[in-house]
Amino acid sequence: MKKKDFLIIVIFLITAAVLWLLVNRTPEVAGKGEAVIYKDREEFAVIPLTADEVIVVENGDGSRNVIQVKDGKARMIEASCPDQICVNTRPAQANGQSIICLPNRVAVEIRSTNENEIDGVSE
Amino acid sequence: MNHDNIRRMVLSAIMTAVAITLHFVEGLFPIPVAIPGIKLGLPNIVSLVALYLIGPVDAYAILILRVFMTSFLYSGFSSLIFSLAGGILSVTAMFVIWKLREKGFSIISASVTGGVFHNVGQILAAAAVLRTFSVFYYLPVLIVSGITTGVVTGIVSASILPRLNKIYRIK
What we know:
- The complex is a heterodimer of chains A (123) and B (171).
- Chain A has 123 residues and is α+β, with helices and mostly antiparallel strands.
- Chain A has helices at residues 3-25, 85-88; strands spanning 33-39, 42-48, 53-58, 64-70, 73-79, 98-101, 106-112.
- Chain A has a 4-stranded antiparallel β-sheet with strand order 2-1-7-6. A 3-stranded antiparallel β-sheet of chain A has the order 3-4-5.
- In chain B, 78% of the residues lie in helices and 0% in strands.
- Chain B is globular and about 50 Å long.
- Classes of the chains: A alpha+beta (123), B mainly alpha (171).
């Protein structure tokens, strides 16, 4: 490989890095999605991301999950499960991101309210 | 038709056949990466070698024949648009680097540029077909994968080309 080959590779890598930063820095505009809370695979609640709400999901067996929707993000702030993976999951805000509490069978998923998302392809 | 023209035509036909075969072989061995849509781009080796061995006109002809043949044989009409967009942009990019070959850009530069622009072309086709800009989120990933596969196909082409040049020198 010659010097200029590396130059080309570096140029493309920089382009990719710049694009990546641009894409990732553009925040999802708040209000463009909703947080869907599932309990036992069924829709339990749908909260628009613009809301400022705290939802408590309680199961018959005493397990408990507390989900907070604030500033366009959804986060699990409390869970009765032993592993606490869901509580440590980073807040979900972009379309398709999710927080899952497997032991309690509770899941939060962000769903876009926009039309024309890429997921519409397979229809 | 003189001798050289016949040689050139036969060589282009053989290379088209090789490109179609490589496309098929590539389909048999998907590379184990967790990202969808990433291929090694083995048929790009043929485009690249054709460009350096015969010339740009034949490289385009081989590409278009290959894309039509593989689409009709294996994948269908929708992939025709994607392959055509990716392929034409890729060969055009390689052609530009090929023009600059005296200025220190080797076949690996051409291969990398071709690989990246192949993916760019496919993203553009996807954006046009799906009428959405969300596909551009995928572009950085595809640029990096284009570089990687471009280096691989470039090294392969660089080692094939001198051997073929010995046998099929076309003035």
